[in-house]
Amino acid sequence: MRRLLSLLLLFSLLLLPSCAATEPPEETAAAPKRVAVLFSSLAEAWQDAGGEVAITVRESVERGLVPEGTPLVDGGAGKRIDTERLLSLAPDLVIASADVPAQVAAAELCRAAGIKTLLFRVDTYADYRETLRAMTALTGDTAAMEALTALDGEITALLASPEAAAARGQRIVFIRAGGTAASTKAKLPSDHFAAAMLSELGCRNLAEEAPLLVDTLSTEAILAADPDHLFFSLMGDEAAARANVEALLSRPEWQALRAVREGRVTILSRALFHYKPCLRWAEAYRALIGIFSEEVKE
Q: Does residue 180 sit in the same domain as residue 112?
């Protein structure tokens, strides 16, 4: 239902006269020149598509995507957009995430003000591919489309490889960990792109069978499920999140889990599995496949 509502919202924005998608770029000169991107992963995707980011959020600077001094409309990851400043900076295109309410609201406000807007949700590689296609339709970057074609082939080969078969049937719990217990939750494949990738590889996400894992990260439910493997993605302050995971795993009840006893606990790379991997999506698949194939060798 959430994806359906998001798609309806996206289409409603795209079909309005102020939206970029209603004005196909017939020539490169017509491409937008002053683009505001309200989410760092989308800023990376826009750059993958050959675009330049003129206005963004602080996280884009922290990740090295844009230089210091780039006009900012949020001091963090884009959860609180300064819409007054955004409008005053006069972008000719606003790109935002359909997953972040503040960005959806900012996009609606900009559209009402006559500014072209695009909302994207990127939960899977297929979503990223379609996002990049839409962006290159504006930039006209043929090199980006060639890179995407190569990436399609690489990922198809990885998913069909003998090494990938080692992941099939593995019973996993995927946990997104913050700096506190309250911010640490198990995630379904529909809630996190890395959990979706593990599902695509054939893993069995136990949170789909035990709602308590999603709602409260119930220790009792995890002990009852006794997964083959635990995966953690770190959010927020990385050091605090990592310390929280270490404290969690040190508890006697967690030490009793077979995955912990056998060392089958993975804290995923932040670069590949917190932020969207964009053109590194094949590298992200390869990293997950490598975890399971190495376990087979042990």
A: no
Matching residue, tokens 């030490």:
255
User: At which of 142, 172, 194 does a domain end?
Assistant: 142
Angle in degrees, 0-180, between the axes of helices 281-297 and 142-159, rounded to the nearest 10: 20
What is the distance between the alpha carbons of residues 185 and 267, in angstroms, rounded to a whole number?
A: 14
d(CA 91, CA 87): 7
Please list, in sequence order, all residues whose beta carbon lies within 8 angstroms of the beta carbon of residue 82, skipping any fewer than 6 positions away. Answer: 73, 74
Does residue 273 form part of some domain? yes
Range of the domain at 112: 2-23+31-142
Q: How far apart are CA 267 and CA 177, in angstroms?
A: 10
What residues does 95 pair with on adjacent strands? 37, 118
DSSP labels for 56-114?
A: B-HHHHHTTSS-TT--BS-SSSSSS--HHHHHHT--SEEEEETT-HHHHHHHHHHHHTT
Read off the DSSP letter of residue 241: H
Q: What would the pLDDT profile of 149-192 be if each residue is shown by its tens digit?
A: 999 999 999 999 999 999 999 999 999 999 988 888 899 999 99
Domain-embedded: residue 186: yes
Q: Model-level pTM?
A: 0.84
User: Does one domain contain both 187 and 288?
Assistant: yes
Residue 100 lies in a domain: yes
What crossing angle do the helices spanning 2-14 and 101-112 adopt, rounded to 10°?
A: 20
38 and 170 within one domain: no
- Angle at which helix 125-139 crosses helix 40-48, to 10 degrees, equals 60
Give how many domains the chain has, as a whole number: 2
85 within some domain: yes
